[in-house]
Structures are given as structure tokens and as C-alpha cells.
Amino acid sequence: MDAEDIHQSVLLEESLRLLQPENGGLLVDATLGMGGHSEGLLDASSKVSVIGIDQDTEALEIAKKRLSRFGERISFSQSNFSEIVEVVRDAQQGSPDGIIADLGVSSLQLDSETRGFSFRFDSPLDMRMDAASGAETVAEMLARIEQEELANIIYRFGEERASRRIAKWIVEKRTSGTPIATTFELAELVRRAVRTNPKDKIHPATRTFQALRIAVNGELDILEKFISDSVDLLKTNGILAIITFHSLEDRIVKHAFQYLAGRCICPPRIPQCVCGTVKRVEILTRKPIVAGLAEQDKNPRSRSAKLRACRKLER
Fold it and tell me: What are the helix (H) ranges across 97-205?
């Protein structure tokens, strides 16, 4: 499979402007995917080296072929981005000058007809970022989870107002002896459970699929720690750039950056700050950077992308 035929890196030029790879140095691509951002970083200067991290075996193999022309300037680690501290330490290349994370589901995963990320294909409900991990699949989660917990997941991670009805229908189907096992089954159940608006541009199952994917991979649980760890790892004046694709991720990144920039998070009525915030970074993006119309037309998946970045300050 040719990575360039199926993958367009979102907000690539904007990311490069923030990370300034033309200055050289060590950069970490914490969500390597099929290597688009890393390729841009490595092409910018012969003095750039990259550590690429991804937990998806198939994506790593594609990225290795795509980036093979850069030789020893690129190294690879099959890990979750939450393990960035261990990966950088084991690489023994010193502190990075920049770190980038693209938190979106890759084109490879969305376009897979077997991994269950998309309801465009009838496939088993898997949705694990690392399909070889042995971790619980979405189908397995739906076969054992309590109704209230499931409703909370769909509401919290998918911001789906019909979460309680969807959860009720899923559990009722399971109780009848026919648990949901495929993408088409889940999409059709949600379509019937949700009172759709004819003006809606997205499929009624989109938010539920998003919520279940986030839950089974623990995506939001590890994001705050990843941000803190990344700032700890960076050299002084190093840049952390993060691309998000939905409001929950963006909110976490925004608030984490604000806290690291010294903004107190104590309740307003407390007479004295007790949260212990210290100004460790300068926020480089007052508002998130979004894709221009040309990129949105070329790559529809970029329409929901938001890029935020910060610079580590000297302590």
C-alpha cells in the first residue's frame, strides 16, 4: 500500500512553521501514523533527526518504508504515545527540541474494512489502535458493560444527547441473546434510536462510534499526562505541538497549556491559590490553528482539526 496514495497529513505546513525543523535538532513524532509529519520534518533539514512512535503495527511498517530514505536519521518505537518518557530515554539521543502529536484516527484505520473504526464497512467491532495488543475490543466491551456506565461513556466521550436510549437498546439486544458484534449492527441500532434531524450532515452513529473508540483505547485518560511529560522532556525553548479532532481533546489540551502557562485553576472564591501552578510554558497559539479552505476541500478530514502549541520556558 502506498502511504502517499491514502494519507494526507493534516495541518502539515502550519506544524512545520511552529516546530521550525529547518534549525535542525531532535524531534519526536509521538503519533507517527504513516509518517507524513515526520517526512516533512526530515525533508526540512539534513540536521534533523526524528523518533517516531506508534502502537499500530501496520502503520509502522508503512512508515518505515516511506521514510527509509532518511536512514539513521529516523528511529521507530512501537509504543503508545503515553510512553514517550521511556521511548526518549531508551533512544539515548538527549532531550528533544520539539514534539508533535496528531491525535486523529489515521486514514489507514478509518479506511480499513476489517478493524471496525468506520461504519462504511461491515466488519467486527474492534476499534483498538493496536489490534495485536490483546486488549478488549468494542464488541467485548458492549457484551459486558452495565447500561448506566455505557450511557455515561456515550454521553461524555461522544456528547450524544440520546446516550441513555442508545445504551438501553444495546443492553436489551444483548439480553435477548444477540449481542452487537459488527459495525453495521451498531450503526443501524443507533440510527433507529436517535431522533435525527434531516439537516444533520453527519451520520447519527458518528458520535457513538467516537465515544466507544475513545473508551476502548483510553485516549483521553492519558492525554494530560502526555502533555506534562512532553514539557518535562523538552529542551528549554522546545516546542510542543498537538493536533486534535474533537472538542473534548481540544479542551484538555487548551486547559493543560493554560495551567502550564501559570494560570490558576482554583475556584474563584478561594482567597489564596492552592493549585500550585508555575509558569513553565509560553502558549504560541492564542486560538487554535485550523485548516484553510483549500486544505479542507482537498482533505475533508481536516475540517475538524485544531492545532495548539506551546514553548518551554527556562526555569
Answer: 107-110, 138-142, 147-158, 163-175, 183-193
